[in-house]
Design goal:
306 residues; 15 helices; mainly alpha; 0% strand
Length: 306
């Protein structure tokens, strides 16, 4: 009896051990990314909340607790919120960007000559580093630069002006640069959503006599509504937190300063890291509030196209 039962014990142990190892395998692979997420995202966010209730200058070894004084200062200084009006230019540009991305994605989702080439052309700007884009358009908009030369070549030289020096024009120039850069991201999102619509629905629509506009209005747009909603949420949150392009091209001069540029200057130019952290918290709360309102006004709807 002893010799008959000995071989079964290791086999039973292996049978019970393998499922446990298999169940824990995904968590092993998630350990590294979750660790990086906690270390580089959640811990800094917690520190930001702590800094926002201190008067720390970023250099002193001590951090004096001041409670809600920083938030009171933000609420009593209108100029800190006044720069949020600059975000309106980027919100308007985001609407233009989404419309253009949806148009190009719809056109290139059908059989079009050289469509792969056009896809690459539209998406390529998104792959370029933001600093490089800022430097490129800095030369593009400078007096006598590429834009002025192009206008002169078609007889519109009288339209040349200080594209980055005129407070009435600079934000339009910067917002247009953002459209050129981020158009490819929305384009890829829309294109993937359109191509996920079953092909037999297009065939049925064509048999029913639907033209391209009818297909877009009654088939494509309802089918990609969740992606469009997501794009608007990303566009608004990105418009409120825009930083890279205006900081590189103008440094916030000529009334082009955004809320994030002002926050960075408060921290690293005026050494008021506590107040800057409070401003960052306020911006985070504004973005969360706007996102919540968007989701309440236009909630996601389940779309069944099968």
């Amino acid at each position: 009896m002893l010799t008959a039962t000995r071989p079964e014990a290791p086999a039973r142990a292996r049978r019970h051990g393998r499922p446990r190892r298999r169940a824990s395998t995904p968590y092993v692979f998630l350990l590294v990314p979750l660790t990086l997420l906690v270390v580089f995202t959640y811990i800094p966010v917690v520190n930001m909340f702590w800094y926002s209730v201190t008067s720390w200058d970023g250099l002193s070894p001590t951090q004096e607790f001041v409670g809600l004084d920083n938030y009171v200062e933000i609420a009593t200084r209108p100029e800190l919120f006044g720069v949020l009006k600059v975000s309106l230019y980027y919100i308007g540009a985001s609407v233009v960007q989404i419309v253009l991305a949806l148009y190009f994605a719809t056109i290139l989702s059908f059989q079009t000559r050289l469509r792969n080439l056009f896809k690459g052309i539209i998406f390529f700007p998104y792959l370029i580093n933001g600093v490089a884009i800022g430097m490129i358009f800095l030369f593009f908009f400078q007096p006598g630069g590429t834009l002025d030369a192009a206008l002169s070549s078609v007889g519109l030289g009288s339209l040349s002006q200080q594209w980055l020096g005129d407070p009435d024009v600079v934000n339009y120039s910067l917002a247009g640069t953002s459209v050129w850069r981020y158009l490819g991201l929305n384009f890829v999102l829309f294109l993937g959503a359109i191509q996920s619509i079953p092909a037999h629905l297009y065939e049925a629509a064509e048999l029913d006599g639907a033209n391209r506009w009818d297909q877009f209005r009654h088939l494509i747009l309802p089918g990609i509504r969740p992606v469009v909603g997501l794009s608007f949420i990303l566009a608004v949150s990105g418009s409120l937190s825009v930083f890279e392009i205006p900081f590189i091209m103008t440094g916030g001069a000529n009334e082009s300063e955004t809320f994030v540029i002002q926050t960075v200057n408060m921290a690293f130019k005026y050494y008021k890291l506590g107040l800057a952290s409070a401003m960052a918290v306020v911006l985070l709360l504004i973005i969360l509030l706007v996102t919540w309102v968007q989701r309440r006004v236009a909630p996601d709807e389940r779309v069944d196209l099968s």
